[in-house]
């Protein structure tokens, strides 16, 4: 039996009759206010993808036995839409988000779909809620594509019903610090992900286990925790970001380092963009760009020798966030920050990414105009 593919041409649109107030930029708190509309597409194993709907933002009514509530059949993406200088709405490398979402869906026994068809529907949401896309660098409309299993049964099995939906939230900076450098606490009493596990997939369940160590870190004044792995103290990632370090090597070259994608690390779109831009734009006589294992002890030792130059996190929500210090087992690793702001490379990479996101530079077709 053939089942229906996701088809953007079938989109049914019902506009709100009760438009919300658009908040001023200074009142935007990450993910707390939402736009007028949302998207939904139901799936059943029997028929495939149903009619996509764009309708006023609303609650769901789900049976308490629904499998998402019991076995975490849930995965999501984080994407952003930006307003360019001509007022057009743009998304950034959405093909990467679609690819990752389908990878997560396959791993979670949820249905996959045609990413380009889904993006065509998302474009319609962006046009319907266009007035919520804020203007200005650092401001955007955060999109949260989500896929849940909706079979109302307690048997532990692949869902035969699912719901793909998208909500959107106008946002400014992710951290309370605004765009200023953040402080991290290295966690080695718990592990975020294990080789062969699901750490490389964007499953909601991966984030649940992060909250307790993150709250512990917050009690001691840190914004996020830095996950370590194993006795050796391998650096993996931060709760909501991938992590990068810049070292000044003895031969005078600088090295940009991030841990490799070994299955325990989320393959971030901003991570990939940082590596691609660094490899294309930095002078290779002066820079080495490395995806290699590194430990907290290397970072500590090189900070003491004055070889640690910069550290920053990357993520869709966090964009490029400078790091000012990392506390590990009661000792602080200080990262040099210029006048309490980001270092030179951190600033440079933020600007390169920003100019593509806001449509000022065309680079490898990474920016897509919603139409
Ligand atoms: C993102 O950067 O979009 C994330 O998913 C991180 C977090 C807000 C869950």
TrEMBL record:
The keyword Coiled coil is assigned to this record: no
Membrane-spanning ranges: none
UniProt EC number: 2.6.1.42
Residue list for modification N6-(pyridoxal phosphate)lysine: 202
Alphabetically ordered keywords of this record: Amino-acid biosynthesis, Aminotransferase, Branched-chain amino acid biosynthesis, Pyridoxal phosphate, Transferase
Pathway involvement of the protein, from the record: Amino-acid biosynthesis; L-valine biosynthesis; L-valine from pyruvate: step 4/4; Amino-acid biosynthesis; L-isoleucine biosynthesis; L-isoleucine from 2-oxobutanoate: step 4/4; Amino-acid biosynthesis; L-methionine biosynthesis via salvage pathway; L-methionine from S-methyl-5-thio-alpha-D-ribose 1-phosphate: step 6/6; Amino-acid biosynthesis; L-leucine biosynthesis; L-leucine from 3-methyl-2-oxobutanoate: step 4/4
A Gene Ontology biological process term: branched-chain amino acid catabolic process
Top-level EC class: transferase
Cofactor list: pyridoxal 5'-phosphate
Recorded GO MF terms: L-isoleucine-2-oxoglutarate transaminase activity; L-leucine-2-oxoglutarate transaminase activity; L-valine-2-oxoglutarate transaminase activity; methionine-oxo-acid transaminase activity
Reaction(s) the record says it catalyses: L-isoleucine + 2-oxoglutarate = (S)-3-methyl-2-oxopentanoate + L-glutamate; a 2-oxocarboxylate + L-methionine = 4-methylsulfanyl-2-oxobutanoate + an L-alpha-amino acid; L-valine + 2-oxoglutarate = 3-methyl-2-oxobutanoate + L-glutamate; L-leucine + 2-oxoglutarate = 4-methyl-2-oxopentanoate + L-glutamate
One of the record's GO cellular component terms: mitochondrion
PROSITE patterns: AA_TRANSFER_CLASS_4 (PS00770)
Record SUPFAM superfamilies: D-aminoacid aminotransferase-like PLP-dependent enzymes (SSF56752)
Family that this chain belongs to: Belongs to the class-IV pyridoxal-phosphate-dependent aminotransferase family.
NCBIfam families named among the record's database cross-references: ilvE_II, PRK13357.1
The name this protein goes by in its record: Branched-chain-amino-acid aminotransferase
Species annotation: Scheffersomyces stipitis (strain ATCC 58785 / CBS 6054 / NBRC 10063 / NRRL Y-11545)
């Amino acid at each position: 039996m053939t089942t229906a593919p996701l088809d953007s041409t079938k989109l049914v649109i019902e506009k709100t009759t009760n438009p919300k107030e658009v908040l001023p930029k200074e009142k935007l708190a990450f993910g707390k206010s939402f736009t007028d509309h949302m998207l939904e597409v139901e799936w059943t194993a029997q028929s495939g993808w149903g009619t996509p709907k764009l309708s006023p933002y609303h609650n769901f009514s789900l049976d308490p036995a629904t499998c998402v509530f019991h076995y975490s059949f849930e995965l999501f993406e984080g994407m952003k839409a930006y307003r360019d200088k001509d007022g057009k709405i743009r998304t950034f490398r959405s093909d990467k988000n679609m690819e990752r979402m389908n990878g997560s869906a396959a791993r979670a026994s949820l249905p996959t779909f045609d990413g380009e068809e889904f993006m065509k529907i998302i474009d319609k949401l962006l046009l319907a809620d266009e007035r919520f896309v804020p203007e200005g660098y650092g401001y955007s409309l955060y999109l949260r594509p989500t896929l849940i299993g909706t079979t109302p049964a307690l048997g532990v099995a692949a869902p035969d019903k699912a719901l793909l939906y998208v909500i959107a939230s106008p946002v400014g900076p992710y951290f309370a610090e605004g765009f200023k450098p953040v402080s991290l606490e290295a966690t080695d009493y718990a592990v975020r992900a294990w080789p062969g596990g699901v750490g490389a997939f964007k499953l909601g369940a991966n984030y649940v286990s992060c909250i307790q160590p993150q709250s512990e870190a917050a009690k001691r004044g840190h914004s996020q925790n830095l996950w370590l792995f194993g006795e050796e103290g391998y650096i993996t990632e931060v709760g909501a970001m991938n992590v990068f370090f810049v070292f000044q090597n003895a031969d005078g070259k600088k090295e940009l380092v991030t841990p490799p994608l070994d299955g325990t690390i989320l393959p971030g779109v901003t991570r990939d963009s940082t590596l691609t831009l660094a490899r294309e734009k930095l002078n290779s006589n002066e820079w080495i760009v490395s995806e290699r294992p590194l430990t907290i002890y290397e970072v500590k030792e090189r900070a003491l020798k004055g070889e640690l130059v910069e550290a920053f996190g990357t993520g869709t929500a966090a964009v490029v966030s400078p790091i000012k210090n990392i506390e590990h087992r009661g000792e602080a690793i200080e990262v040099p920050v210029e006048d309490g702001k980001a270092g030179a490379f951190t600033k440079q990479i933020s600007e390169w990414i920003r100019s593509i996101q806001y449509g000022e530079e065309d680079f490898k077709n990474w920016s897509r105009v919603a139409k």
